[in-house]
Design goal:
This protein is α/β, with parallel strands linked by helices. The chain contains eleven helices and 15 strands. The protein folds into two domains: 190 residues, Rossmann fold (3-Layer(aba) Sandwich); 164 residues, Glutathione S-transferase Yfyf (Class Pi), Chain A, domain 2. The chain is globular. It starts with a strand and ends in a 6-residue tail after the last strand.
Length: 376
């Protein structure tokens, strides 16, 4: 599986762009602000029907315009799939495959898996639990549609339950039985989500630890732990115990929506005790573990998007990535960097089909195929 063609219309800072992509390595170079990262985000839209960076779809429309459209052709073993994602202000997002519009965007998730590594991943370490849950949910949802369905149903039930709790003060209180139908849905779907998360983490953690050791070649011990209230008590018991607190807070205070991932280095929180280099190494290892597990579960290698990471890592970490890249571990890879000379130096020696796309302000994208790097 690989993306053979990409077309953008009024997406972010691109008025129009059209690219023919190679099946192996595609490198976008140019100064900051020309839209390199936006090209990767367009690929993310086609794969997962959403932006990696901006959750509000209309914020991705070119300034002063009303609509954006991203098109792509995905080459698969079964043939080419034509994908179109469009957003118009004031209308719902539309995603189609081979001219057939999806009724539910969730039905598209997982068909074309993708993994992105970017400097913005630092938020996983530095920000709150919601960011880490979103990462975990997005990862699992790419290859487990039942999980995504259970998660969506849980969130809908919680929204209804929270609405009841908010209205309780107007009505002078709320009888416990009024929330029981929503409790039953929370229990059913929440416990299903918890079970999958727990099982998934048991597979992810060893891969993370292996990649961290491979990148760092150091003695540090890293851990990734899954924290959930459901690991201590059944959700039914938690909901009953928290009823008075929920009424006072006017929202549901227990459940899987409070789960978190704990990153540690030598037993201490990575956020507080890890250096910038150690944090970057942890995040790259985490994303490579994500790639391995997604490939195994989905039965196909995800598209790998590397956004400006070679400028942020030392030679040792770069060597590990290049060894994986040159060893054919990945399928299609899209890379951005500000330094074309550096990327030629890094990629020219690989026995892969490498294509460079040079970008500049107010100029169309130009490309070249490095025939000397094609394996013979």
């Amino acid at each position: 599986m690989h993306l053979s063609h990409l077309s953008l219309f009024q997406f972010r800072n691109h008025r129009e762009a059209e690219l023919a992509l190679g099946a192996q390595v595609n490198c976008f170079t140019g100064p900051n602000g020309v839209g390199k990262t936006n090209l990767l985000d367009a690929v993310h839209y086609l794969s997962l029907s959403k932006s990696y960076f901006e959750p509000t779809d209309t914020h991705n429309v070119l300034k002063g315009e009303e609509v954006f459209m991203v098109k792509g052709t995905m080459a698969t073993d079964a043939g080419d799939d034509d994908l179109v994602c469009s957003v118009r202000k004031g209308h719902r997002k539309v995603l189609s495959r081979n001219r057939k519009e999806y009724e539910r965007l969730a039905d598209h998730v997982g068909r074309y898996p993708v993994v992105m590594i970017t400097p913005y991943d630092g938020q996983l370490v530095l920000e709150g639990s919601e960011v880490r849950r979103r990462f975990l949910d997005g990862l699992i949802s790419q290859f487990d549609r039942a999980y995504l369905d259970a998660l969506l149903r849980y969130n809908r039930a919680m929204a209804h339950r929270n609405q009841l709790l908010k209205q309780a003060w107007k009505n002078g209180g709320l009888d416990r039985s009024a929330a029981e139908p929503w409790d039953e849905q929370l229990i059913q779907h929440g416990e299903a989500v918890h079970a999958v998360r727990k099982s998934f983490m048991e597979e992810l953690v060893p891969l993370l630890e292996s990649h961290y050791q491979g990148i760092s070649s150091g003695p540090e011990q890293v851990k990734l732990s899954y924290r959930s209230e459901l690991g201590e008590k059944p959700l039914r018991e938690l909901l009953n115990e928290a009823w008075s607190r929920d009424l006072a807070a006017e929202h549901t205070t227990v459940g899987i929506h409070r789960d978190d991932l704990l990153f540690t280095l030598e037993g201490q929180p990575l956020k507080r005790y890890g250096s910038q280099g150690q944090q970057k190494t942890f995040l790259i290892a985490l994303k490579l573990a994500q790639f391995d597990l997604t490939a195994a579960r989905a039965g196909q290698r995800p598209i790998l998007l590397l956004d400006d990471i070679f400028d942020k890592i030392d030679p040792q970490r770069m060597r590990h990535l290049l060894q994986l890249l040159g060893g054919g571990r990945f399928g299609q890879v899209l890379i951005t960097d500000t330094d074309a000379r550096r990327m030629h130096h890094v990629l020219d020696g690989l026995k892969l089909d490498v294509r460079f796309f040079h970008m500049a302000h107010d100029h169309p994208i130009t490309s070249e195929t490095l025939e000397s790097t094609v394996a013979r």
